[in-house]
Amino acid sequence: MAFDIPSFHRQAVETPSHKSIDEMRSLLVDTLEDAGEYPEIDDRGNVVVSRGDTDGRHILLNTHIDTVPPHLPYERRTEPPGPDETVDGSGGDGEGDIVCGRGACDAKGPLAALLDAFLTVTPDDGRVTLAISTDEETTQTGGAHLAETIDADGYIVGEPTGLDVCTAARGQFEGTVTIHGESAHAADPGSGHNAIRAAAPILQAMESYDDKKGPGEHETLGYPILTPSMVEGGEATNQVPAECTITFDRRSVPPETSESFCADLQAHLEQWLPDSMALTVGLIRPDTPFPEAFATDTDTELVRTLQEASGGGVRQFGAATEASYFASNGPTVVFGPGDLSDEIGAVAHSKREYVRLSEVRTAARAVRETVERLV
């Protein structure tokens, strides 16, 4: 049975996958089996299937099937949603080029393109693997597991890039700075050590971290970003708080890693802390992976071939991505139809998420041509 991009894409967008990916994974597996391909489900629930000769060059195609909440219904229309619109299904099932709904561009549009390319390419001297992860929007254990268990000579990771070939992305990890003081009665604050009061110089020190200790400007990704995002502390209005926690978001650039950052930030902040207090810096979810920053040489064959096939530009990707897990194994690019944002505002993860079917078809053709040339 011939694979039909609009039909599969519609079914995928209509299938909620923000709470559970089971139904969406079944749709993907059934589609592959209908095409005569028989995928495996690995230990993390990823869908993996290969075609071609194991002795030649190996290209891996990856994207994800989970989405952020809430689910938004499928619509097809001739114009993108406006700035104040929420996709609610009232746009109907027209014949326009625009498909709206949750996951339309992130990442069921890229999924449809990669699936079409996988099913229509015939490797002559190598192998192509479709490896679809299940929890990219949350813990990313699926993508990390794929990178640990499948070796390839090149990786194409499907995300909305507007058909540009993205060769680099900042890393993203979250953590906490916890200030440890000593509680006391608020009527006698001098008998304790107020952790909330100490947060003020620590927040200032966080602002100066990248100037004094950070990795500096990366030639492709620019400067890293450190953003305090929450401050919590205290247990009662009449008590000196013994603890205050600052939650942060870090967007890293090479060569910084999540492990090295925490140690370096703690050493920097401790210089600003009163002698009577202590602090600790740690990652949130330390037992799950975080996407590190990565950068692929723009002159690699994979980059040049995909750029020629797509006609897009070569640039960095604007968000953290599972591509970072593959980048330590070989040349890795992020590529796909749709955009993270447009001239109006946010698209991916937003109430007006959409993709152009023409871009999905172009992405499929570009990936197919690239894989054919490489394997």
UniProtKB/TrEMBL annotation:
Every Peptidase M20 dimerisation domain range: 168-272
An example molecular function term from Gene Ontology annotations: hydrolase activity
PANTHER family linked: ACETYLORNITHINE DEACETYLASE, PEPTIDASE M20 DIMERISATION DOMAIN-CONTAINING PROTEIN
Needed cofactors: Zn(2+)
Region Disordered, annotated ranges: 67-95
Name of this protein: Succinyl-diaminopimelate desuccinylase
Source superkingdom: Archaea
UniProt cross-references to PROSITE patterns, sorted A to Z: ARGE_DAPE_CPG2_2 (PS00759)
The keyword Zinc is annotated on this UniProt entry: yes
InterPro entries: ArgE/DapE_CS, Bact_exopeptidase_dim_dom, Peptidase_M20, Peptidase_M20_dimer, Peptidase_M20A
Keywords: Hydrolase, Metal-binding, Zinc
Species this chain originates from: Haloarcula vallismortis ATCC 29715
Record family assignment: Belongs to the peptidase M20A family.
